[in-house]
């Protein structure tokens, strides 16, 4: 483990509480919304660190749903479409509800069976300017 800020260490993985699912850097996750009425947020884990007490925090890059963007959901947006944003944040790992997969649109259309954990991304979203751009790096 590499040392980061005072008293913090980079960690390689985190097991989601109450499950045997392991999250690693690069994985996409579902993050619990503060309002239980809302769908979970989707994010990509960029970094994980633990403090001396074992509390794990994750640096995430957020995906936005079309309805969360300036133009809102349009007719051509897919039901499972997300936009990879330039919005990064630190969150407690305890807010991770599960893992998901964000596919490129091309790979998403090749899936035989789309599950609840499958999403796709075609665009990157610049949160500050609120503009969409074609996103070559937004899905697997």
UniProtKB/TrEMBL annotation:
Xref: PANTHER family: OS08G0421900 PROTEIN (PTHR46364)
The protein's name: BAH domain-containing protein
Residues in coiled coil: none
Any one Gene Ontology molecular-function term assigned to this protein's record: chromatin binding
BAH domain residues: 21-136
SMART domains membership: BAH
Protein origin, superkingdom: Eukaryota
Gene3D superfamilies for this protein: 2.30.30.490
Organism: Eleusine coracana subsp. coracana
């Amino acid at each position: 483990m590499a040392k980061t800020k005072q008293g913090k260490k980079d960690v390689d993985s985190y097991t989601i509480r109450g499950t045997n699912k392991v999250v690693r850097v690069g994985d996409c996750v579902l993050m619990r919304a503060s309002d239980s009425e809302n769908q979970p947020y989707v994010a990509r884990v960029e970094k994980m660190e633990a403090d001396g007490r074992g509390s794990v925090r994750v640096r995430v890059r957020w995906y936005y749903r079309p309805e969360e963007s300036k133009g809102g959901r349009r007719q051509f947006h897919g039901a499972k479409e997300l936009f990879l944003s330039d919005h990064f944040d630190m969150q407690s790992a305890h807010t991770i509800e599960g893992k998901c997969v964000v596919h490129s649109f091309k790979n998403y259309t090749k899936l035989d069976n789309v599950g609840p954990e499958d999403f796709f991304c075609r665009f990157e979203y610049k949160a500050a300017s609120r503009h969409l751009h074609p996103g070559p790096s937004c899905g697997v």
